[in-house]
Amino acid sequence: MWQLLQIELLKIFRKPRTYISFGAIAVMVVIIQIALKSDGQSYIEFIVGGLKDSLDIPFRNILNGYFVCFVILNLLLIHIPLLIALVAGDSIAGEANMGTLRLIASKPVSRTGLMLAKFMATAIYTALLLIWLAFISLLLSVLIFGTNDILIARNDYLEIIRSNDVMWRYAAAFGFATLALTTVAALAFLLSVFAENSIGPIVSTISIVIVFTILSEMQIPLYDRTVKPYLFTSHMLAWKGFFYCKIDSGGSSIPGTIENIRAIGKSSLILILYIIGFVSAAILVFNKKDILS
Amino acid sequence: MSLVTVSQLSKKFRNHTAVDDLSFSVNEGDVYGFLGQNGAGKSTTIRMLLTLVKPTAGHIELFGLDLRRERKKILSQVGAVIEKPDLYKYLNAYENLSLFARMSGSKITKRELNTQLEMVGLGGRENDKVKTFSQGMKQRLGIAVALVHNPRLIILDEPTNGLDPLGIADMRNLILHLSRNLNKTVIVSSHLLHEIEQISTRMLIIEEGKKMVEGTVASLMDPAKTLVELEVDDPKAAASLIESTPWFTYLQKTTNKILIFQLPRELIPELNRVLVGLQVNVLSLQARNSLETYFLSLTRSKQHVAAFTD
Questions:
Q1: Cα(B210)–Cα(B214) distance, rounded to whole angstroms?
Q2: Which of A13, A46, A176, B151 has its CA 20 to 30 A from that of B89?
């Protein structure tokens, strides 16, 4: 298995297409950082809205590296599934299109082993993409904007997390985001088994994510109970929960706490079940598939 | 010893039967020609031998082992080129070979891999990406991939597809080398009858997924009906000289360049002597298209071909 995984990683990271995602993330992050550096005050005023008079923190302190990273994650974690689908959707269909699938499937390795190695390689790619995002969005932002307490806008109030209480939250948030994006990778991986050209699974994955995200965001009571809890997209943004603290009686955030850890745990479990479901289905279909490409 | 035994093999794709109750066996050391028209079921059968396609019915044994139960053990002893050898274009020749060697379960040194590349004429190109290779070079790299783990059985599905005449000759020589010098068993499918005729020891002809005949090349072709093509300096004069001899009954056709006879194979030397005796200047003599004739006599397309040749 380790040997197969090494081979699959070699294939992913020697393919020029792989680096499009890393480049795209770098470009988007830098664009956001430039925008916030040049006109961050307007953005903060927009977020704070009517509460700005009640704040006793200067704007220059709010616009710090931790805050910028939070803004970047909010903006990008919705779009990164597109970049994940680019590689995951290509994993089987791309090989079928290239004509290499018949070659690897006729080697003395089990189809299940081959699929698991391929998925693990895709998951590693997803994790590395998130590490890259963490590196440039957190480290670069801290270098450019410095560090300070982070201001989080909740529904009807503003929450302040002390700077010494932030890093573990980011580590957990990036970890959760990896899980969420691995779910998208697993979906693209499953769709890839059915196709002989990577365009189909990539477009299908993106379409499903868009439709599910719209359904997750729609405020319709019927869907709130019947559909939303079961859509993986409803759980993908649960990483924000790591930045929601418990509040003490004075209305201040309690350091080191998470408001609803059970909700995050539940979302994690649902995403893991989705991953297991998608990958199992992909293996099942691939094991029965006649390779005619 | 039978290396491959296929029994009552069938494959249906919805309503289409690609392979129908096919049985054959390949002996150790054979160069086994697998002949059939396009769509006859050759590739489907080969894909079933390589576990790419699951049979609807039937049984396959390789090296005396059940393919369904001992898949990994069997495939570690099989090398294959299936249609055109598609490899990873963004990797170089060495990386491709190394990758497939590892997948085949072989621990092969860098030196051995380079030797393998040199054997197929790709020495010095090991660091070049496959996307820069010609079709012939890809085909040679595909052969290296098939041979890298030193398999007992080599399966080549239409190995001459897309090759120029020189490439086809190279491929023929390579197959003969594998069989004669390295004692490999080779199954080679093709619709190029002349190629199969030159290299095969035994062959199978299939049509619409069904076996037409199986046996040695010599036994399958009717030696009593060998077509002999004679190139002479003056065919019309030669034909009139032959007219007065019993050999005229064998003469099929006279053109402005050649005479075509159909006669038992053992009479060819005698015919040559007679012609020399008649002072006919024979420029060349060759038994022509014997497998093609036989193949067309078996397959449904013979009427179409006859229409063009009449």
A1: 11
A2: B151
